[in-house]
Specification:
CATH class: Alpha Beta
Radius of gyration: 17 Å
Largest sheet: 7 strands, parallel
Structural class: alpha/beta
Strand content: 15-25%
Bound molecules: 2-phosphoglycolic acid
CATH topology: Rossmann fold
Length: 260
């Protein structure tokens, strides 16, 4: 695990965008696993700006999103489909048929989940999976005690996650309690992982993820077993790390070619 502590969310997001841009230079047809939530918003803005400046081309990129609410049609303003088009896809040049987001409105969820897993395989697997993290240590919507080898499936959200995410919903709308999420086993098969966490609200789950024991109680702790996982934090999210100074010195001492 490589822990990179940046001064603020802005510089963390710029670094994440550089990492993705470097991947696309090496592999223009890369498969990206994408995430929603507040955390990646600045990263998406940065990627859009890079695209507008002609520094990055998404025309051969394929994407798979992590999760979606069950029961929300794609055009619902709180759906992750809507989020992704508003905040990223409609501003860049990824062909629509190369974009994959779980469909929360399907009737046969198990069949959909199997097909989603197959589509990832058919695309050659995910090269880079972007992740946020929940206060309870979830990745995707894999809540605590999710099987660490789980695949794409339906899950029930915990109370804390419902509270954290209800800001995306209008007051009269009820936040769905069920979601479709890529599994932890699915995420772990990605070639590389880029997890972003900003703010003191994430400090506890980050300390558990990076320095705590590997446990299904903190699903993100599975990333300790991933050979290419980068964890980009701002100073606030790093406040509970006992080895923060070591991670900082290690990163600062790297030559530029190793930093991205
Ligand atoms: P956030 O959500 O980016 O809105 O904090 C992260 C997550 O729940 O994975």
């Amino acid at each position: 695990m490589e822990v990179i502590i940046q001064p603020d969310p802005g510089s963390g997001s710029v670094l994440a965008a550089q990492i993705i841009s470097n991947l696309l230079k090496r592999k223009p047809n890369a498969v990206l696993g994408l995430a929603t939530g507040n955390t990646p918003l600045r990263l998406y803005k940065e990627l859009i700006d890079m695209y507008k400046r002609g520094e990055i081309d998404f025309s051969r990129v394929t994407t798979f999103n992590l999760d979606e609410y069950v029961g929300l049609p794609c055009d619902h303003p709180a759906s992750y489909n809507y989020f992704m088009y508003e905040n990223f896809f409609k501003h860049v040049n990824i062909p629509k048929n190369q974009i994959h987001i779980p469909d929360g409105a399907v009737e046969d969820i198990p069949a959909f989940c199997l097909a989603y897993e197959q589509a990832i395989k058919d695309a050659g697997g995910i090269d880079l999976q972007l992740l946020g993290i929940g206060r309870d240590g979830h990745i995707g919507f894999n809540e605590p005690v999710s099987s660490l080898s789980s695949r794409t499936r339906i899950k029930t959200l915990m109370e804390q996650t419902l509270k954290d995410n209800e800001t995306f919903f209008e007051r009269e709308d009820h936040i769905p309690h069920h979601v479709i999420t890529m599994g932890i086993g699915t995420v772990m098969e990605s070639g590389s992982i880029l997890l972003l966490a900003f703010g003191t609200g994430k400090a506890h789950s980050i300390a558990q993820t990076v320095e705590g024991p590997l446990t299904a109680m903190v699903p993100a702790s599975i990333l300790q077993l991933h050979p290419h996982a980068k964890i980009i934090l701002d100073k606030d999210a790093a406040t509970h790390l006992s080895r923060a100074a070591y991670y900082q010195t290690t990163y600062d001492g790297k030559p530029d070619w190793q930093k991205f």
